[in-house]
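**Protein fold record**
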Amino acid sequence: MDYETVDAPEFGASLRGLGLNILVRDVAREVAFLTEVFGMQAFQPTADFAIMTYGTQVFQVHSDGTYHSHPLPSLLPEAGARGAGAEFHLYDTDPDDAAAKAEAFGAHILAPPLEKPHGLREVYILDDNGYAWVASRPL
């Protein structure tokens, strides 16, 4: 599928399995964070939406405004972290490289790169919306 040209109905009908859609205050800022820190690709980015890929995985980023008639935004805090309790693991990203890029981007390092007892080296990075992105590699 060509994510750069696919229309919304075709894209929506193609989605299978487990999906991830992240609501953010600023789509352009989130896209910049994800592409610069983790090397993801963005397709059809607008002020309201972007298709994102990480390796073979695809997910979506939507602005709060696209959910104007949906009840979910009423649960989101006006300020501060939104993603408490959720971790987005990126198993194919070097944690030390991601930490350096995140610092250069101005993102918050919640937990520095460490070797964990479950066999991974991980770094926890918070984006502007408070979502925890965990870059990790096997030890």
